[in-house]
User: Fold this.
Amino acid sequence: MGARAHGSTGKVHFGGLDEVSLYGTPVEAAPPPGPPDPKSSFLKNQLQALFQPTDNKLAMKLFGSKKALMKERIRQKAAGHWVIHPCSSFRFYWDLCMLLLLVANLIILPVAISFFNDDLSTRWIAFNCLSDTIFLIDIVVNFRTGIMQQDNSEQVILDPKLIAKHYLRTWFFLDLISSIPLDYIFLIFNQVNKYCRVFFNAAGFVMQDFSESFQILHAGRALRILRLAKLLSLVRLLRLSRLVRYVSQWEEVYFLNMASVFMRIFNLICMMLLIGHWSGCLQFLVPMLQGFPSNSWVAINELQEAFWLEQYSWALFKAMSHMLCIGYGRFPPQSLTDMWLTMLSMISGATCYALFLGHATNLIQSLDSSRRQYREKVKQVEEYMAYRKLPREMRQRITEYFEHRYQGKFFDEELILGELSEKLREDVINYNCRSLVASVPFFANADSNFVSDVVTKLRYEVFQPGDIIIKEGTIGSKMYFIQEGIVDIVMANGEVATSLSDGSYFGEICLLTNARRVASVRAETYCNLFSLSVDHFNAVLDQYPLMRRTMESVAAERLNKIGKNPNLVAHRSEEDAGSINAVVVALAAEAEHASRSPDRGPPSLGLALRPLQAAAFLGQRLPRPKSDNNVSADHDPQPLARGFFHKSDAAFPQ
Ligand code: CMP
Assistant:
């Protein structure tokens, strides 16, 4: 695959066993032969290490593993010594410094240009020269920094020619214009040859325009030149493009989680404040360049000679008033220039305001998308009920059902879980069902694989008080586990045989016998149930015959209780039939024992049944439903953790 690194070719080999570590990690190529200069090679190595990708967040996001990162290092080495990898430590710290410098520049420059007249003071020239130099170096650094491609994120362009081509085609021109000190170049040229026409021609029509306007103002030539230089120094504000680029790159890498929405809003607010700041400076700069005409806002407010902070505060107040469309500051614009400036800041302010509102709305919506989805669903249901002209009572029930089932949040859980890996999905479902598993003795005592197999196939369902969950005599297609709620087992004559509550299950007899439902089941309270379809039921129990026998034994007991033949479920084999009988007997013994203890409810089975040897047979204690005998009898004192399960349409993928 890769090229072999030999001597000065600088190429790299990934393939041969000799150059690959035991774990398949490629090792870096040996340095070229010959006596190395220890000092220079140490420095070179240090610099190269600085330019190489390190295992920072960006690199790990891009390459995924340390092994891939190692390969990338080798690839970068092959690309040439002085190519900086975009994931290198050097680039990280460089970007950080540039970010700080950019922010400082974009805040300080407009203030200095608008409110200070020390354009030729040493500290101002020093500040400008230093920052311009750093921004020029940034261009050089950009020419040597690899490029991450949007469409092919794994392949970073490291070829210097391609990097240069890419940079020249994209941001180079803007970066250059915003970095070269046009104002100083202009001043120097002007000094060298006051009447240098060549320069004026090159400077273009913009300056001619301005010079014309200055002539109208009858200003002195030296003053005019300084003002032109001032305008030229404004070009530095084009550095804003760099700021936007760096910030969005950092945002993508370091804030790509929940915080990113807040980060975006934060960025937007900062940007709005920055534009407000610029607008404020501009409000002052224009009348200042005009020499503060008497009808300008500065003259009206008598701020020409005020301290710069006072001037800035009034200018900012004026700009903010326009931008937020609140007013015009202290006085409405009196001159044409003021009026145009006001219009400009109104437009920019309204645009920012609209952007901000859009982002904030997005943020609020994305913050609680499940609640929004729920509200939308409820609205739709309401419209449907009105469209179908449903009776009032039915509407009430539907509304209550929605409230109870979804509890104000709507998730497409099937979709969410479907997007997870199989293992992760199973883990999440197991976790979601931990409370159910703990409360259902049938699960609590069972093999963990069996539990996992069952819970991944459960489906969440909610019934309202009075709902007939199962109708006697019908053919059943699923059984239920009660997470929360009380159901009544109703016999054909309308008598309630027993009640079941949290942690119990029902509807299994029909699935075990392939016959019809032996009783009706009615919800007494709101019931949060998990259903298991017949296919999944059979598939799981075929793998765990002991669990089937356990269920059969309980079913036999139940059948016995409602006066039906327990052998209905004991048709498998002689041995099984014997087991079931023994279990029934044992359970009867348990029931009798329960009847004697004061804190338990009445016994459920015919007390004529005697324990015999069944207890011995049940050396291994079999799980049985919790509240079979009476709701109060076995009620779990530990309340179920509410809200652990998202109450959505389909609890689990089938
Ligand atoms: P199935 O016949 O499928 O439908 C009705 C359900 O009521 C039945 O399964 C049992 O799960 C349940 N059931 C019937 N009799 C009793 C009982 N005595 N105690 C508890 N549950 C019962």
Observations:
- DSSP finds 28 helices and ten strands in the chain.
